[in-house]
Amino acid sequence: MEPRLFEPFTSGRRGGVGLGLALAREIAVAHGGMARYLRKASGTCFELEIPWLAS
To answer: Measured between alpha carbons, how far is 24 from 40 in angstroms, rounded to an integer?
Structure first.
């Protein structure tokens, strides 16, 4: 399941639609950022990075 986490319509939850992580990644990429899964001993962690430009 891990390699497919960000694929649309892929869900590990019963009744899940599988769009949340796919949409989060698409939004981040559209803004020049990224979304990634980080394996942690304490549990699941997702990181969303969007560049910030000071004006």
So the answer is: 20
